[in-house]
Design a protein that fits this description.
By secondary structure, this protein is of the alpha/beta class. The protein is built from 36 helices and 16 strands. It has a 7-stranded mixed beta sheet with strand order 6-7-15-13-9-8-12, sandwiched between helices.
């Protein structure tokens, strides 16, 4: 059997649909685009004959005239749509594609959500034959819209209309607003299309034409499971804007910390109807991923949500696994993120973690554009907004030289002239407004993109995954020096030695980007260098170091007394009142301190988790005395009153205007005192709820005695260095050493169940396999994995002398400490769809 390679498997999956995409306009949604960027799929797509790659959510009439393949002179007759969403969620966009491209005769729709998964969701509008049902629905909706707009004179017959050139296309742009207006206000945005397709006749004639004798539109609906975001050949996460990652992992109950995290494990079984949609979709995704990669899995789980996913995987294997082809044996370990909340909250020694925490990300699609698959249920729709892996790099900083200002003005004028030409029918005032907009200037200075997992044969990210902060920066510097040498550029001899600094990297990378050809040839390493420069510059470097120091202080205090720990947490909160918010720091370019109020709340969460490990208490109570809890609560209330900007926190949603009014000093004294008193009463209530949520984090393992026993046993293994590692390192080390872990559940494979129910009656039962005995170890963290955990897991494999083991690490998303804060206590903006 060959070795596992996630990037190669993803590219091979694209090759398998080459017949569909050759000569087609390819539409991908945001989740699919994120995945394709990471695997470097665009050169392959061009090689396979794709005419153009366009955004599914932001399609335009101009997409029809974009052509990467100049040998194709005729208008496109087929489109391919690849989505990481449910078909019902992508339906409006797919419908718009068909209406926009009126010369298209063939449309192939690929979704990463399997047909069985579509029907498995309780609130799904599609049934067991989901793909066939959607095929009929799409044809019927398309035909009705075409007929409606033909009557209105907005559309003409498919065969009589061709897109010849930009000039001919330009004459049609004036009607674009009318077309979209008709779609937006009537059928394409009708919620009944997505929420209640079952009311339609799915089994109508599948060969539909607009008029008798007209060309027929051919549509196919297919499954495309390999939409993943590989960070390396053996580490991946799910697309941030795909349905699987966005679906809730826990229901709204006492055990839930956040819809984006599994519920706290209690050891109690799930009711069939209470299984969160995220768990269902994750199980189906993992089953089809393993099947695509020819893996035969022995399944283990740790945590309640992982347990139900493991059970569903086992059931699917026994029902649907009828393939006779040879498969590689693998052990799959599912772990609930809530079993270990501490590791992703802390700022560990991981270069990639530090890098991602410092970089700005691409803005997500507007939440208003995202419709929940559960929107038809009685519960409030919940969509977990995961941070995209697409990052922003300020390339303008390395292009500054004499004449840059003049060149930038020329670029700006050229862009305005181009837009003016396409929008000649618009008023001149609109063009003038665009010319003066700051947004255009801002976009010219940054490039969106992602760190390519495999850039020109160099696996940069894979090499950085197991590096600490200092080693990672030195490795980046080494690559930069090699690139300079390859370009035959002179280098300062001092640049070869010493600690890497942001200013040193800036000077070297500007030399490498001296001209356009060198910039293009070395864009991969230049991107990494610029990202490293940001991480090493202020205030990012000082803020990270301040977190590291603060977390060490909390760790030391937690080994002392609860009074010492609570006092330290209170000091962090009080000190944060003197610190400006992060946005204010960026505006003024300086900082009065390092850690703000939100940072102090994250440190408070870390302190409570440490207290739960060192001062175990009853499930319903916190680790501190009543007096200590009251003092902490008062400190938080006072910080909120002093910092109205903290109103963006999720637990303060609805109090923003009151907090802003309270900060004004223009009222009479008595009125100000009364308003402050009322605010204290309101804030006390919401802060009390927030504190109870943090206490649940403190007791996140206490509700399941068996699980607690297993985690306690893990903490006692190894040396002091071992004790400072995360749970994943400890668990993997123990399993490789063949220890039994209480709470770790084994789910019988299909073969094992056969022996248990068949030959097992005659004493031929199958022994329980060991996870550590498998040649391929596949670990999936439900709720998200952290870069530090990836590094430590690699260390565990190396320290246990198992070079024969192939380790695959994955999770729902790639978590940084700031991401964990947003999941548990984050801003109302980033979690807006989770609020009732």
């Amino acid at each position: 059997m060959g070795s596992v390679d996630l990037i190669t498997s993803s590219l091979n999956s694209i090759r398998e649909i080459s017949d569909h995409i050759a000569g087609a306009i390819l539409y991908v949604d945001a989740g699919c685009l994120e995945a394709f960027q990471l695997i470097g799929a665009f050169p392959l797509l061009l090689e396979l004959g794709v005419r153009a790659i366009c955004s599914l959510e932001n399609l335009s009439l101009l997409d029809a005239i974009v052509d990467w393949n100049t040998s194709l002179a005729e208008p496109a007759t087929k489109i391919v749509i690849i989505t990481s969403r449910l078909l019902s969620d992508a339906h409006r966009y797919i419908l718009r594609c068909l209406i926009t491209h009126r010369t298209v005769l063939h449309c192939a729709v690929f979704t990463s959500i399997s047909e069985i998964a579509h029907s498995a969701l309780i609130d799904s509008p599609l049934g067991p034959d989901a793909f066939h049902e959607y095929h009929s629905l799409l044809l019927q909706d398309y035909e009705e819209i075409v007929k409606r707009h033909e009557k209105e004179g907005l559309l003409t017959h498919r065969n009589s209309e061709h897109i010849q050139s930009p000039d001919s296309q330009n004459t049609k742009l004036s009607s674009e607003d009318n077309i979209w207006s008709g779609l937006d206000t009537s059928y394409a945005n009708d919620p009944n299309i997505e929420a209640s397709p079952s009311k339609r006749n799915f089994y109508a004639d599948e060969s539909v034409s607009k008029e008798d004798g007209g060309a027929r539109l051919s549509i196919s609906v297919n499954h495309f499971p390999m939409i993943i975001c590989p960070i390396s050949t053996r580490v991946f996460v799910l697309p941030s804007e795909g349905t699987v990652a966005e679906s809730r992992l826990s229901n709204d109950n006492e055990e839930s910390l956040s819809p984006g995290l599994p519920a706290i494990s209690t050891g109690l079984p799930f009711d069939g109807e209470d299984v969160p949609p995220g768990a269902i979709l994750t199980a189906h995704f993992l089953y089809h991923l393993a099947d695509k990669m020819d893996l035969k899995m022995e399944i283990f789980s740790l945590g309640d949500t992982s347990k139900i996913i493991g059970k569903m995987l086992t059931d699917m294997s026994s029902l649907y696994d009828v393939s006779r082809r040879s498969k590689m044996s693998a052990g799959l370990l599912l772990i609930d993120r809530t079993v270990d909340l501490l590791t992703p909250c802390c700022h560990g020694d991981s270069f990639l973690d530090r890098l991602l925490s410092s970089l700005p990300r691409r803005e997500r699609n507007s939440p208003a554009q995202v419709k929940s698959a559960q929107s038809s249920s009685d519960h409030s729709p919940v969509t977990v907004l995961r941070p995209p892996l697409d990052i922003k790099i300020p390339f303008d900083s390395i292009l500054s030289k004499e004449g840059t200002e003049k060149r930038s003005d020329q670029i700006h004028e050229s862009i305005i002239a181009f837009i003016s030409g396409w929008n000649s029918g618009q008023p001149e005032s609109d063009v003038a407004e665009l010319a003066n907009s700051n947004k255009l200037n801002s976009e010219l200075g940054t490039l969106n993109g992602s760190f390519l997992s495999n850039y020109r044969g160099a696996s940069y990210l894979e090499a950085l995954l197991d590096r600490g902060a200092k080693d990672g920066a030195l490795l980046i510097k080494k690559w930069l020096l090699e690139a300079l040498q390859s370009e035959k550029l002179s280098m300062n001899s001092k640049a070869r030695l010493g600690i890497t600094s942001a200013s040193e990297l800036r000077a070297m990378v500007k030399k490498l980007a001296r001209d356009q050809n060198s910039l293009i040839r070395n864009r991969g390493i230049i991107q990494l260098v610029l990202a490293t420069e940001i991480a090493l510059s202020e205030p990012h470097s000082s803020r990270w170091d301040a977190f590291v120091s603060a977390e060490k202080i909390l760790s030391v205090s937690s080994s002392d007394t609860s009074q010492s720990l609570s006092s330290q947490i209170r000091d962090f909160i009080n000190t944060s009142i003197l610190v400006r918010s992060s946005q204010q720091d960026k505006m003024v370019g300086s900082s009065e301190g390092l850690l703000n109020f939100q940072d102090a709340l994250l440190l408070s969460t870390i302190g409570y988790i440490l207290a739960g490990e060192n001062f175990p208490t009853a499930v319903s109570t916190g680790p501190f005395s009543w007096e200590e809890e009251h003092a902490l609560k008062e400190a938080v209330v006072e910080a909120i009153l002093e910092r109205p900007s903290s109103a963006k926190l999720r637990f303060l949603h609805g109090l923003e205007n009151d907090l802003e009014a309270n900060s004004r000093k223009d009222d009479e004294k008595m009125k100000m005192l009364l308003r402050r008193f009322l605010m204290i009463l309101m804030i006390n209530g919401v802060v009390g709820m927030m504190m109870r949520r943090i206490i649940r984090m403190n007791n996140h393992t206490s509700r399941n005695p068996v699980l607690k026993e297993g985690l306690t046993a893990l903490s006692k293994l190894g040396s002091d260095t071992y004790s400072r590692k995360g749970l994943l390192y400890k668990l993997l080390s123990a399993l490789l050493a063949k220890y039994d872990i209480p709470g770790l559940e084994y789910h019988s494979s299909a073969v094992g169940r056969f022996f248990k129910t068949g030959f097992g009656r005659f004493g031929l039962g199958q022994a329980k396999p060991s996870f550590g005995d498998q040649s391929v170890l596949f670990i999936f963290v439900v709720g998200g994995i952290n870069s530090l955990e990836v590094r430590e897991a690699m260390e565990a494999i190396s320290e246990n002398s198992r070079p024969d083991v192939e380790l695959i690490l994955s999770g729902t998303t790639l978590l940084t400490p700031d991401d964990m804060f947003n999941l548990m206590l984050g801003s109302s903006d980033s979690m807006s769809l989770q609020l009732k």
